[in-house]
Q: What sequence folds into this?
């Protein structure tokens, strides 16, 4: 199978993980990602990131689409509308991911790691700021890809060897960034033997093959960006532009969490909240209007400017 990068100008994506209802913070990040593409006439791809089989729920995937449509967002390709670069659901793309992993093995850029199983399992979900683990101490780093044969039945994961070098990118929101992934996180997991790949590899492969030129997402994924840039390079692809949106916090000053029902889009919808009021509040929070004007996402396309996005966290109001 050939894995060819597709590059489409200004193409963006919405990539919800169906692990619980979307909340106001997601609504704001997705609105920004959508406006950032639409502003420049780009295509928007919808992709369901359900690789974490212990947490993903099929009904949550359908609910995410309903929530985002309710807000007035749309997409040109996705699980419900189809498109030439599908499937748009990660659990149905395993043959593609296996091929990417095979390429990394063939180039000896990954090695088999027999460290704890829990560590390996965790790799399926996107590591948000609070669950960044300690730096991998390199216990299995002396192995090469071909040493996997000698491991027999022992379970293991595939770890990507991170070069000791700084990784730089010019963030669409935060400006120039430099991180050293060999010091924060170190060699990271890209797959589990015979049981699929990790978030880092899947998201890289999907964005590359789906032609995504702009990855706009929450800033709790900043630490993942240098890892993904390394994977792009390892697979012979050009990294997209990345933009990280400051996080949303609740009135209690804590990061919005999926467990809090009061800020869930489904709850607001069921309570009869007008989505146009919500979009008006989000537009105000993006500096697009002084007052809350009942509106739809399309109303803000012309005024939107990613470079002018406020860089401080956003405190979600009550609706
Ligand atoms: N599906 C991931 C999440 O909801 C987002 C991954 C990404 O935007 O790269 O956490």
A:
């Amino acid at each position: 199978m050939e894995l060819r990068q597709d590059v489409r100008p200004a193409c963006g994506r919405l990539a919800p993980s169906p692990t619980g209802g979307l909340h106001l913070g997601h609504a704001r990040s997705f609105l920004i990602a959508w406006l950032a593409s639409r502003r420049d006439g780009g295509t928007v791809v919808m992709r369901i990131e359900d690789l974490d089989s212990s947490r993903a729920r099929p009904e949550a995937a359908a609910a995410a689409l309903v929530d985002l449509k309710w807000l007035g967002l749309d997409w040109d390709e996705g699980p419900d509308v189809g498109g030439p670069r599908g499937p748009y659901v990660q659990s149905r793309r395993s043959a593609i991911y296996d091929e990417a992993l095979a390429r990394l093995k063939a180039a000896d850029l990954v090695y088999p790691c027999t460290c704890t199983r829990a560590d390996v399992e965790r790799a399926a979900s996107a590591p948000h700021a609070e669950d960044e683990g300690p730096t991998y101490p390199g216990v299995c780093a002396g192995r090469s890809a071909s040493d996997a044969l000698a491991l027999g039945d022992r379970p293991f994961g595939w770890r990507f060897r991170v070069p000791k070098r700084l990784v730089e990118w010019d963030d669409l929101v935060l400006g120039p960034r430099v991180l050293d992934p060999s010091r924060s996180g170190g060699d990271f997991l890209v797959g589990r033997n015979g049981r699929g790949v990790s978030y880092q590899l899947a998201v890289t492969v999907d964005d590359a093959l789906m032609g995504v030129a702009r990855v706009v997402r929450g800033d709790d994924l900043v630490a993942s960006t240098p890892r993904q840039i390394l994977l792009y390079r390892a697979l012979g692809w050009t990294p997209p532009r990345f933009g990280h949106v400051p996080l949303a916090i609740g009135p209690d000053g804590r990061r919005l969490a999926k467990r809090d029902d009061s800020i869930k889009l489904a709850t607001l919808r069921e309570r009869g909240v007008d989505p146009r009021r919500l979009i008006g509040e989000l537009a105000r929070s993006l500096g697009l209007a002084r007052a809350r004007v009942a509106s739809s996402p399309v109303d803000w396309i012309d005024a939107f400017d990613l470079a002018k996005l406020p860089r401080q966290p956003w405190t979600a109001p009550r609706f």
Remarks:
- The pocket of glutamic acid is lined by residues 15-17, 49, 126, 203, 217, 221 (CB under 6 Å).
- The radius of gyration is 20 Å.
- The first strand starts at residue 12 and ends at 14.
